Structure formats: structure tokens, C-alpha cells
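Support request from a user on the community tier.

User writes: "When I paste my C-alpha cells into the form, the page sometimes reloads and wipes my input. The last time it worked, I copied everything first. Here is what I submitted, just in case something in the input itself triggers the reload:"
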């Protein structure tokens, strides 16, 4: 019984810490990613922290962290109210929950890559639908203008955002778990998975770095090349 209480306390402590960390990186890590006229789409790395939490504790915990962080964001710094809160929950949950689910089912490096890839695609599709139906309501753009932005702007933005989150999650998940075990916030068997060979681990790191660089490069190109006169 005491052991069970200790484990529950450790998990609650970890979840609270992940919520706080995700909120902090959202505040200090928010950067403009793609700008077109007066419309600026920003990136922040909070989904990376939440994805790590999902890998450790599962999809329901990832959903819980997503809701808590989005709620605190709405109450403190967001200017989009409940619609912005709902958008944050949908976008984050669509990415982190499938990633955590598939990693839980296949607790390997391949499972992590598969889960994150599915999360990236699902998040992109969900945000295209979100932007089509709801962006006109809270940004005040005509729906026709939003439709013209879906493929040249919102689609690449969400793919780039998801790609960056995927790359960063793959790069820092293992070091993060090791650090948490070192400070006794995770037990040695928590988030345990078969250790990949050195060659596979090196290939994963190289692939993640390439993906990260590619996403940044495409974002820079899009900022330079996208020309939409009706927004000027």
C-alpha cells in the first residue's frame, strides 16, 4: 500500500512538473515561424514536453497535460479565449495522444517513430479542418480568403510544426528519461524499452537532425516566397 501511494505521488509530481515545464517553454520559446502580411503563425515547443509525458505515462496522461496547459495559457496569456483553448487542445492532443498510444503498443524506437508520424499527419488534418471551419470566426477573414490560405500556408505550417516537434521529441526523450531517473522522479523500470543498438540510435539521431534542419529550411523559404497580395 505504501509503495502504491509513493508511486501515485511520484506520478502526480511528474505530471505537475511536465505541465509547468510545458507552460514555461510555451512562454519563452514562442517564435514566429511563418509570416504572411499581417498574419503571423507562431511555433512553441510545448508539444515536445507533452509528447515525452505521453511516452512515459500513456495517452490519457498526455491528454490531461494538454488540457491543463491549454487552460492555464487561456487564463494567462492567450488573446483568443475559449476558441484558442479548444484549438490548442485539439492540435496538441491530435499529435501527442496517437504518438503515446502507438508507443505504448510498440515500446521500441520504431514504435516511437510510427506514433509520432501518425500524430503529425492527424494533427495536420485536424488543423486544416479547424482552420476551414473556425478561423473565419475568430480572425475575421472571409472564408474564401481562408480557403486560399489552406494549402500554401496552413498545411505547410502544421507539417513544419509537427516535424520540428517529432524531431525534438526523438532527440531528447531518452536523455530526459535518464535525467528523471537520476533525480529519482522515475523508477528504473518506468518508461523502460529495449535499448537500440548503437548503429540504430545513431541513425535515429541523424534522421531527427536532418528532419529538424529540413523543417527550419522550408520555413525560411516559405517566409521568403509566399506572396499573397490580398493580405497586404
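"...and here is what came back when it finally went through:"
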Amino acid at each position: 500500500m505504501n509503495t502504491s501511494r509513493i508511486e501515485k505521488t511520484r506520478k502526480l509530481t511528474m505530471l505537475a512538473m511536465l505541465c509547468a515545464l510545458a507552460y514555461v517553454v510555451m512562454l519563452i520559446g514562442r517564435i514566429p515561424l511563418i509570416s504572411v502580411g499581417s498574419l503571423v503563425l507562431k511555433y512553441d515547443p510545448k508539444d515536445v514536453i507533452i509528447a515525452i509525458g505521453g511516452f512515459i505515462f500513456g495517452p490519457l496522461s498526455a491528454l490531461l497535460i494538454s488540457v491543463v496547459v491549454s487552460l492555464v495559457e487561456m487564463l494567462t496569456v492567450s488573446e483568443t479565449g475559449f476558441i484558442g483553448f479548444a484549438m490548442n487542445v485539439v492540435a496538441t492532443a491530435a499529435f501527442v495522444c496517437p504518438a503515446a498510444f502507438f508507443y505504448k503498443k510498440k515500446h521500441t524506437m520504431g514504435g516511437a517513430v510510427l506514433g509520432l508520424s501518425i500524430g503529425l499527419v492527424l494533427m495536420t488534418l485536424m488543423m486544416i479542418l479547424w482552420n476551414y471551419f473556425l478561423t473565419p470566426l475568430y480572425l475575421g477573414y472571409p472564408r474564401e480568403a481562408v480557403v486560399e490560405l489552406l494549402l500554401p500556408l496552413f498545411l505547410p505550417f502544421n507539417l513544419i510544426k509537427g516535424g520540428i516537434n517529432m524531431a525534438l521529441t526523438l532527440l531528447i526523450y531518452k536523455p530526459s528519461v535518464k535525467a528523471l531517473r537520476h533525480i529519482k522522479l522515475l523508477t528504473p523500470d518506468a518508461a523502460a524499452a529495449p535499448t537500440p543498438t548503437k548503429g540504430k540510435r545513431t541513425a535515429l539521431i541523424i534522421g531527427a537532425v536532418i528532419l529538424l534542419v529540413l523543417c527550419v529550411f522550408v520555413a525560411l523559404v516559405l517566409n521568403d516566397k509566399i506572396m499573397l497580395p490580398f493580405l497586404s
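Agent notes: The reload is a front-end session timeout and is unrelated to the input. Confidence is low (pLDDT under 50) at residues 227-232. Strands lie at 31-36, 39-43. Escalated to web team.
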